[in-house]
Amino acid sequence: MLPSRPVAATPPALRRAEMLRRQIGQGRFQRGMALIAVSLSILSGGEAYFEHTRGSFNQRWMWTPVWVTPPMVAAGIGALFSPRIARIALPIASAVNLVDGLVGAYLHLRGIYRMPGRFKNLRFNFTLGPPLFAPLLFSAVGVLGLLAALFRREE
Q: Which of 9-18, 21-30, 84-93, 109-118 has the least mean pLDDT?
């Protein structure tokens, strides 16, 4: 009797890569990224609302994170169910979130600069001034939404 030929085992890394390719093709990865973007959008939009309420919304720009959060949430939830919304609405809402976060980071940096001592007193002004990294969290939501839109489902 001849010895049976050993079956070549698939390396684990290759199996994981194939599984990831299959999940991207089926849209699971895109839906997961859209769900993460939705949840982070709700959190960052709520945080912006409550923090800007502390500042009494004394500048009109402070309303923009509140305004762009609902369309991002709607586009993300729509992307969970519709490939068309994921292809059209999600990138637009995500790009608006990204730009709004970058503009907010600039405005927060400008707010720190306008405090007494400007950047010479950075340790104090950074601590008590407008939070510099909060708008960047908003930008990260936009990046996640754009990544979700890039990983399209197979037709």
A: 21-30
At 154 the three-state DSSP class reads: coil
Residues 59-85 have pLDDT tens digits of 888 899 999 999 999 999 998 888 888
Contact 33, 144 (CB under 8 A): yes
Q: Using CA atoms, how far apart are residues 15 and 83, in angstroms rounded to an integer? A: 26
What is the reported pTM? 0.76
Picking from 76, 138, 70, the residue whose alpha carbon sits closest to that of residue 103 is 138
Spatial separation of the C-alpha atoms in residues 27 and 137, rounded to whole Å: 25
- How many C-beta atoms lie closer than 10 Å to residue 138's C-beta? 28
Residues contacting 139, CB < 8 A, separation 6+: 97, 98, 100, 101, 102, 105
Backbone torsion region of residue 75, taken as left when φ is above 0, otherwise alpha when ψ lies between -120 and 50, otherwise beta: alpha
DSSP per-residue codes, 101-119: HHHHHHHHHHHHHTSTTGG
Do 52 and 66 touch, CB atoms closer than 8 A? yes
Residue 147: what are its φ and ψ, rounded to 5°?
-65, -40
